[in-house]
Amino acid sequence: MNVYKEFEALVRRALEALAADGGIPAGLDLSRVTVEPPREAAHGDISTNAAMVLAKPAGKPPRAIAEALAPHLRALPDVTEVSIAGPGFVNLRVAPSYWRARLADVLTAGVGFGASTIGNGTRVNVEYVSANPTGPLHAAHARGAVVGDALAALLEKAGYDVTREYYINDAGAQVDVLARSTHLRYREALGETGIEIPAGMYPGEYLKDVGQALAARDGAKWRDLPEEEWLAPVRAFAIDQMMAGIKEDLASLNIHHDLFSSERALVDNGAVDQAFKALEDAGLIYVGVLEPPKGKKPDDWEPRPQTLFKATQFGDDVDRPLKKSDGSWTYFANDIAYHYDKYRRGCPVLIDVWGADHGGYVKRMAAATKAISDGKAALDVKLCQLVHLLQNGEPVKMSKRAGTFVTLRDVMDAVGRDVVRFIMLTRRNDQTLEFDYAKVTEQSKDNPVFYVQYAHARCRSVLRQAASLHADWDLSREALSAVSFDGLASTAEVDLIRLMLNWPRTVESAAEAHEPHRVAYYLQDLAAAFHGFWNQGKDDATLRFIIEGDDALTRARLALVTAVSLVIASGLAIMGVVPAEELR
To answer: Are 177 and 202 contacting, i.e. CB atoms less than 8 angstroms apart?
Structure first.
């Protein structure tokens, strides 16, 4: 239950009453009217922009509308004060009894609290990771994997029908290089000595395992044959082996895709031809000569006719070639076909999670998606910036096994799954992230993983203590939802409840913005509020959770503690993190 949506409905009803009184014209568009917490807590509990957004269509100054609206809002149940701020924001204070009564909603819903129906079952495809199957996943892949997985969970929480997808880039030149590199390791496995890995091949030791597996399966079958005979089967074997390792690494991070789509299968099944024909039928294909790229000297540029897509009609900077000089498809043509395929599967909302090095590709892909779907599909690309791996401030050395980078498995082995998942969401995806092994595992309030988990563990500790002291009490959330909350009268307690009731709004706004990092931010705020209340109890015995001789207040505070643990667990579930029962 989103209390701010409830008050938004009440504000709209008040505006309709104001229109009926002649205070504003009837029939105004109220779609831009919002209700949310004010930026400054001192201004009240709830704020609306109604007077601001209706001023121009109503032909009245914002403050005049705000002053006319205020009496209607003062008449609302539970509203104790209405004030007007700045050019016309209307702020409301709500009775503490209202917030206390809503605590039962949290307890009744359990970890399901915050679930929404705003998605209305809309189908969304979230494609993430999609690493080339040429090596193990590295730390940067971990960030995209977690962002994509948490975003998918967030959208599901908000009522969307989500498909988690991995696109296997198995049709490019890089997989031929993989096959040749594997063949070298295969020959090594068969006992051949003196083999050196040439420049341009994949030197990582992980391919030794692939070569040995191929030798174990096929013996010397491929050793002496010409490349044209072994390339395709060795390539297929190597891709399968690499994808098995990738899936294993993802599973260890608790990431499981619904669908793995093959680029090669897409091409072989004629999907690129179908997409090209769709664009051609729409009049969006032509043969032309592109201008030389910026910075190219005239003698470096060879003008030649190319088969081009009219990308500039859909917001791109230049039109884009779909065929190479030899008549084969460009990578871009394959990607258009892939997004066309996703759209035709019934997903009008497409989200791709990419590495920052693909930033220059966003405009053309957005243009192509718009064109191929006739404007019916929307593509949102989330670019994940770099992850700097540190140990006490010093860069972490590359993995010997990978040869050129630190693997996801290395990071997991060092700090554990939950730490990796949480830390990857502590910054916006488009901001660089520093991941210091020492800092992300230290037990201090400066470590957000520990700080949030410690709050949950403290909640569970209080409830275990209460169960030990009052073995005859029913401390289930269902029983606690029925107790009296009147004793929760301190400012800290009411503020804590109000913050918990902001969780459904956080879920909805984060889902609409496609920003899962907001969940991590919210949980840090909630943990800070809970720890603050805990610390007050150390100095003031009347604010402790278990009060000897006052069973009613103790039950109310145990309900509060249970609610905090449930909301933290609800947020951690979206992040894919297991709530801590205790910390050692």
So the answer is: yes
Is residue 206 within 8 A of residue 185, CB to CB? The reply is: no
Do 449 and 567 share a domain, yes or no? yes
Confidence at 204, pLDDT banded by 50, 70, 90: confident
CA-only gyration radius of the chain, Å: 29
Name, in order, each residue with C-beta under 8 angstroms of 357's C-beta and a sequence gap of 6 or more.
none
Which of 94, 129, 144 is the last residue before a domain boundary?
A: 94
Tokens of 113: 């609290």
Percent of the chain exceeding pLDDT 70 equals: 98
What are 250's two structure tokens? 């993802």
pLDDT at residue 304, rounded to an integer: 86
User: CA–CA separation, 117 vs 98, rounded Å?
Assistant: 24
- Residues 292, 300: Cα–Cα separation, whole Å: 9
Note the pLDDT tens digit of each residue in 464-496: 999 999 999 999 999 999 999 999 999 999 999
What are the strands, taking DSSP E only, across 64-104? 79-85, 89-94
Walk across the sheet containing 285-288 and list its strands: 285-288, 306-309, 320-321
Q: Confidence class of residue 237 from pLDDT cuts 50, 70 and 90?
A: very high
Question: How far is Cα of residue 77 from the mean position of the Cα atoms in its chain?
Answer: 37
Tokens found for residue 443: 């037990």
Q: Strands across the sheet with 378-384, in order?
A: 259-262, 161-168, 123-127, 349-355, 378-384
Q: Is residue 325 part of a domain?
A: no
Nearest to 475 by CA among 107, 190, 194: 107
* 347 within domain boundaries: no
Among 209, 224, 250, the domain-final residue is: 250
DSSP of 444-501? STTSHHHHHHHHHHHHHHHHHHHHHH-TTS--SHHHHTTS--TT--SHHHHHHHHHHT
- Strand stretches in 342-454, DSSP E: 349-355, 378-384, 387-391, 394-395, 433-436
Higher pLDDT residue, 398 or 541? 541
| Domain carrying residue 450 | 100-114+444-575
Full-model pTM: 0.94
Give how far Cα 523 sits from Cα of 214, 417, 422, 506, 565, Å: 48, 18, 11, 10, 11
Report the candidate in 390, 332, 323, 334 with the shortest Cα–Cα distance to residue 364: 332
- Looking at 190-270, list the stretches that DSSP marks H as alpha helix, in order from N- to C-terminal side: 206-218, 227-252, 263-268
Reduced to 3 states (helix: H, G, I; strand: E, B; else coil), residue 352 is strand
Residue 74, domain CATH: 3.30.1360.70
- Could you tell me how far CA 199 lies from the centroid of its own chain? 38
Q: Is residue 202 part of a domain?
A: yes
One-letter identity of residue 170: D
